[in-house]
Amino acid sequence: MENCCQTTSETNSRVNRCPDCQENGRRVPIITLKSLLKPNALSILHSNLDYSFCSTPSCDVVYYSGIDTFRTNDLKVAVFQKDHQLQVSVCYCFGWTRERLNHAAEQDNDPIEFIRDQVKADRCGCEVNNPQGACCLGNIKAFVQTLSK
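Now predict its structure.
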């Protein structure tokens, strides 16, 4: 997908508060919701609205607008920021779960370099695969840093 791992000022500048936890969220492309919502949730989506992603781990809300709120059980995939199981994806495009990242760290493999190579080859599709609608490389880097502590 074109430029999926590059953030834009438009995406980052639109923030508003989650209706449940009141934390700021980040705007996500509507294609993210269309690709990740279960059919029942998708059937009530207002595609002309702006939606934001709530990354607060303790909050069940994933997407919200002024009208709709979609929760973790409305998505086809588990959300990295909200589900701490080992099998949950950290990188949704290339299948890097917490468990796989743990194994890579034990074997001194570098998943970050692998993902960067995939991004350079224009193989990522974060806006349709990653619930946050943006590149997961930051999540990967942060998780890998916790393993080295």
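Residues 89-147 form one domain.
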